[in-house]
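cron nightly-structures :: item 1 of 1
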Amino acid sequence: MKVRIPTPLRSYTAQAAVVEAHGETVGEVFDDLDARYPGLRFRVVDEQGRIRPHMKVWVGAEAVRDLGAVVGPGDEVTIMQALSGG
């Protein structure tokens, strides 16, 4: 499946905006991403295994917060990072 990577995390993917990953759940997708791009998972998932509050993950058109959320073979996963400024 395709995974869209936000600009701030592209240093982990050699600047690739879209990468391939495998898994049946969001957690498995992040495990696969971390095997291919070490350190990426830690930027999105905290030490307790939860998606960090400033990160948003979409499976297709649905926002998910649970790593156990099911991902279908044709789904696209999008990672978004909240930005702030002043």
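cron nightly-structures :: done
The radius of gyration is 12 Å.
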